[in-house]
Specification:
Strand order of the largest sheet: 1-8-3-4-2
Helix content: 40-55%
Structural class: alpha/beta
Number of domains: 2
Largest sheet: 5 strands, mixed
Distance between the termini: 67 Å
Order of helices and strands: HEHEHEEHEEEHEHHHHHHEEHHHHH
Length: 431
């Protein structure tokens, strides 16, 4: 059968078999090892999924009626570029193969079933954006919007027959009944076979007591509308970065007096540990530290320590981590200063300024981390003496000198601005 629609080419319509699994990766190797180790009838299987065809209109409605959550905590952000989003719309209208969506069902607080997107967020986001006129359907050199806003009067609108056609297009939905949080996260990690997860996203997808604690802190202090968010590097641009920053910070606080450099491997091992769980007392102290951080960042009497040359400046990832460590150490060792936000703001200013005076490349590496700890140790030992010697009320946080302007310099600058994986030097954590 072929399409008879005059707008579309005669593309054969066929039900394609699912793509063949990649048997070259670690996942298959792990399964082979399990089979060799022990023969057992217990495969620890998840429940059999239900396969349903849902129209784009139905999926769009489910997203906007809160029946389908495409943003569980382990999900990544919107990473598809505009061209790839438009390509999906083209594929749907022209009957090209689109991989299945993977959902899990959950019960909310009222006992009602809702669906969670385990795989397919990029596709669902593209569909939603098309319905809202945010991306066009490209056809024969022209761009057609599904609907136009008042400011888009000069744009072409998709003809009604194609609107009806798109609304009836279906996607295969593989729906698992109540997997449980741990299994959802594992399935999310298993299906990420396209764009690889960043180090931050891999950490965020972990499930453990420590990870739950970090997720709670992220939700309380680093939500999109919260007060800490504006000072964070690239905040909101990439899912997982806020979780990574808090995880590294809490890892360093928990590991004191060890002063090793945090890295993805060591923090991952720490998050999944089961031998030692976060105590109520430790959780309370961390929340108190973050509340202090939030007060300083949001109060105009103190947040000048995040200002450079009269303008707000995002802190570097390593600064965010060790400002938290500084506040945690002052809170623990100097309880008499717990309500002295002015002194703590001056201490933050000194940490940032001295760090920039010594290093141009402010990154989470062994040299910079060592300097952070040296400054923190001196502040905690005698804050009044240290601030008297190093704090200058007229001294602003200086901007590093410009990098070289060659191709290598431009590439380096882009890497520094992103700093996705913190690029620390790996070290063994002493316990």
């Amino acid at each position: 059968m072929v399409s008879a629609d005059p707008w579309l080419p005669n593309v054969p319509v066929a039900v394609l078999p699912p793509p063949t699994a990649d048997t070259s990766g670690d996942e298959t190797d792990d399964l082979d090892e399990e089979e060799e180790e022990e023969e057992s009838d217990d495969l620890d299987q998840v429940a059999q999924p239900v396969v349903i065809q849902r129209t784009t209109r139905e999926l769009h409605s489910m997203m906007h009626e809160a029946e389908l959550d495409i943003n569980p905590s382990y999900q990544r952000g919107v990473v598809w570029p505009d061209t790839k989003q438009r390509g999906l719309i083209n594929s749907l209208l022209r009957n090209f193969y689109v991989p299945p969506l993977v959902f899990a069902t959950r019960r909310d607080e009222d006992g009602d079933l809702t669906k969670v997107c385990v795989d397919g967020k990029q596709r669902l986001t593209s569909i939603s954006k098309f319905y809202h006129g945010q991306i066009p359907f490209d056809w024969k050199g022209k761009k057609y919007l599904y609907e136009k806003s008042a400011t888009q009067r000069n744009k072409l609108e998709l003809p009604e027959d194609l609107k009806r056609l798109f609304s009836k297009k279906t996607l295969t939905c593989v729906e698992y009944p109540e997997l449980g949080d741990d299994t959802e996260r594992e399935m999310f990690q298993r299906v990420q076979l396209g764009m690889s997860l960043t180090a931050a996203e891999k950490l965020q997808a972990l499930s453990s007591h420590w990870a739950d604690f970090i997720h709670g802190l992220e939700g309380q202090y680093l939500a999109e509308a919260d007060l800490l968010t504006p000072i964070l590097p690239n905040s909101g641009n990439e899912r997982g970065r806020n979780f990574q920053g808090i995880a590294y910070m809490v890892y360093c606080c928990d590991g004191f007096p060890s002063q090793d450099t945090p890295n993805a491997k060591s923090v991952n091992n720490w998050l999944v540990q089961t031998e030692r769980l976060p105590t109520d007392g430790f959780q309370s102290r961390i929340r108190q530290m973050l509340a202090t951080f939030e007060t300083i960042a949001s109060d105009s009497r103190y947040n000048w320590c995040f200002v450079a040359n009269g303008l707000k400046r995002n802190v570097a990832p390593v600064e965010f981590i060790y400002i938290g460590v500084l506040l945690f150490r002052m809170q623990t060792a100097l309880p008499g200063l717990n309500d002295d936000f002015s002194t703590k703001a001056r201490a933050i200013s000194c940490l940032r300024r001295l760090l920039r005076e010594q290093w141009v490349d402010i990154r989470t590496n062994t040299k910079v981390v060592k300097t952070c700890w040296e400054i923190i140790t001196k502040i905690v030992k005698n804050p009044s003496k240290f601030l008297e010697a190093h704090f200058d009320s007229d001294h602003q946080i200086t901007t590093p000198p410009p990098k070289q302007k060659g191709k290598r310099g431009q590439k380096r600058k882009a890497e520094e601005e992103e700093d996705d994986e913190y690029r620390p030097t790996i070290s063994r954590r002493g316990r």
